[in-house]
Design a protein that fits this description.
Blueprint: E1 5-6, H1 18-40, E2 45-49, H2 56-70, E3 75-79, H3 84-97, H4 108-125, E4 134-138, H5 139-143, H6 146-151, E5 155-159, H7 169-182, E6 187-190, E7 205-207, H8 224-234, E8 247-249, E9 255-257, E10 263-265, E11 276-280, H9 289-299, E12 307-313, H10 322-336, H11 340-343, E13 346-351, H12 356-369, E14 372-375, H13 384-391, E15 396-399, H14 402-407, E16 414-416, H15 422-434, H16 436-453, H17 456-473
Parallel strand pairs: 2-3, 2-4, 4-5, 5-6, 6-7, 11-12, 11-14, 12-13, 14-15, 15-16
Antiparallel strand pairs: 1-3, 8-9, 10-13
Helix pairs in contact: 1-17, 3-4, 3-7, 8-12, 9-10, 9-15
The protein binds uridine-5'-diphosphate.
The site of uridine-5'-diphosphate (UDP) has 16 residues, from strand 12, helix 12 and helix 13.
Length: 474
């Protein structure tokens, strides 16, 4: 069995982006693609990551590689294999890059294991590549491949999808471990300028924020009837699910339907006209779901109508995320402790993961139906849920941390200077619930902001610029 697998991605028709970005931007993309193909000559651009499905990196590569395919650029995607120990090591590096020291520094045996797994993958990778090819290594899992690839003449960039605004012993530990590998790279890509560590030479650092795909099951347009039918099927909205109206377009272009219920903890159910305050997150301490609940119960529920929906992935049976189950259990306890009147208006929702497109359509419906979307994170790399909510013309109340600060521009949502300030959170949410006109204006400004900054054509053009610089260094 081979360690390195090629991921086949269906071409995503780039022409359909025109509906969203307009003719001028579409033409610029097509022109840039033609010029990029010419510059590329016989070279191939290889993405190397550690998983083909699940997680933001895989989701984004599916889209970007799909558009590149349609635009005729030779962009490929390979996935490497590791064992449980390898992924435990890379998860620790991931946490360290987020400034969390849990697990301590990696020891010599762990360093050897990381090197051995990547050396075995490199043996299979190298024969696929030609000396002048361009390689994007994604995240700590693939970082250690840089020296072997560079030694064979490839031009290598490391793409970090994570980071924090500051440095501490934990981030220092991660860089001490990764630097001997990463020094071999010719470029370094981060989502925010603040995430670039001091050791990266300024001229080799590139800032490329993530993007959303307006046509994915997560973000595609759904009419109001479909949204309500999906929410009723999930069991979030009161009443029986009207049959047959839960259709959406799958990632591969086929038709899907939402058929599964979500698992819901809640005493009552909102009716279709009740305003919803929604936060969609993994069950992660840094997303502060209990803080959202406390802020809603203390400062939103007493003043008027509205329900809070906290939604995240199903936790039962997710063996590799014990923390998710523990955080969800903490939310259940906090929910039981809420004052009765507030508890009746708070729903904890876990979304089935059997069918990822269906899961995405559920998130889409929740975000579209929301009167207000919140992302009260204590720390955040980028915060795709913010861009997703803004794209749906929803007003977002988000903590002023990490990438949320970049996304919520003045007038496009409300930034909370102190993520732990429940009263300020409540006031912001209440203001938007009580002023639908202002909320709607903000939502539309938010959608324009996402269109202007976080749609795939811009993401591709930023990669074009970075890869062009790598080619010209060669
Ligand atoms: N998400 C999802 N299903 C869920 C919960 C979250 O698809 O049940 C998605 C969410 O819509 C977003 C991503 O997971 O696209 C989370 O990305 P984000 O950058 O917000 O946070 P991260 O989880 O990477 O810290």
């Amino acid at each position: 069995m081979s360690l390195v697998k090629s991921v086949q991605v269906a071409a995503h028709p780039a022409a359909r982006l025109e509906q969203v970005i307009g003719g001028a931007r579409q033409a610029r993309l097509v022109r840039a693609a033609g010029e990029f193909r010419a510059r590329l000559g016989g070279r191939t651009v290889w993405n190397v990551s550690s998983t083909a499905a699940g997680g933001g990196v895989a989701e984004m590569l599916q889209v970007l590689v799909g558009y590149a395919e349609d635009l005729g650029a030779a962009v490929r995607w390979l996935v490497i294999t590791g064992d449980a120990q390898f992924f435990a090591i890379t998860k620790r590096l991931h946490n360290q890059i987020h400034g969390q020291a849990a697990g301590g520094p990696l020891n010599g045996d762990e360093a050897d294991h990381y090197a051995r797994v990547l050396a075995a993958n490199a043996v299979e990778l190298l024969p696929r590549m030609r000396p002048d090819d361009l390689v994007l290594l994604h995240d700590p899992q693939a970082a250690g491949l840089a020296p072997a690839l560079a030694a064979c003449g490839a031009r290598v960039a490391w793409r970090s999808h994570i980071g924090v605004d500051w440095e501490n012993d934990a981030t220092q530990g991660a860089w001490d471990f990764l630097r001997p590998y990463l020094d071999a790279a010719d470029g370094y890509v981060f989502s925010r300028r603040q995430y670039v560590p001091a050791w990266v030479p300024a001229h080799k650092a590139w800032i490329i924020p993530p993007s959303i795909d307006p046509f994915s099951p997560k973000n595609q347009d759904l009419d109001g009837g479909t949204v309500r039918a999906i929410l009723a099927t999930m069991g979030v909205l009161e009443g029986d699910a009207p049959g047959g109206q839960t259709a959406f377009v799958r990632s591969d272009g086929g038709t899907g339907t939402v058929a599964r219920p979500a698992e819901i903890t809640g005493e009552g159910r909102p009716g279709p006209a009740d305003p919803l305050v929604v936060q969609v997150s993994r069950w992660d301490r840094l997303k502060d779901m209990p803080g959202v609940m406390a802020g809603f119960a203390g400062h939103v529920a007493p003043g008027g109508n509205g329900y809070l929906v906290l939604a995240g992935p199903a936790v039962t049976g997710v063996a590799d995320d014990p923390e998710g189950a523990a955080v969800f259990a903490g939310c259940l306890l906090a929910w039981r402790d809420l004052p009765a009147a507030a508890r009746a208006r708070v729903l904890l929702v876990t979304l089935p993961l059997e069918d990822l497109d269906e899961n995405a359509a559920m998130v889409n419906a929740l975000q579209r139906h929301a009167a207000v979307i919140t992302q009260k994170s204590l720390a955040e790399g980028f915060g795709l849920t913010v861009a997703e909510g803004m794209w749906k013309a929803r007003p977002v109340v988000g903590s002023a941390v990490g990438g949320i600060v970049d996304q919520i521009a003045p007038g496009t949502g409300i930034l909370l200077p102190d993520p732990r300030d429940g009263a300020a959170f409540g006031t912001a949410v209440r203001t938007l619930l009580d002023n639908p006109g202002q909320a709607s204006q903000m939502g539309h400004a938010a959608q324009d902001h996402v269109r202007g900054n976080y749609v795939g054509d811009l993401h591709l053009l930023r990669y074009d610029e970075m890869l062009t610089a790598l080619i010209s260094q060669g």
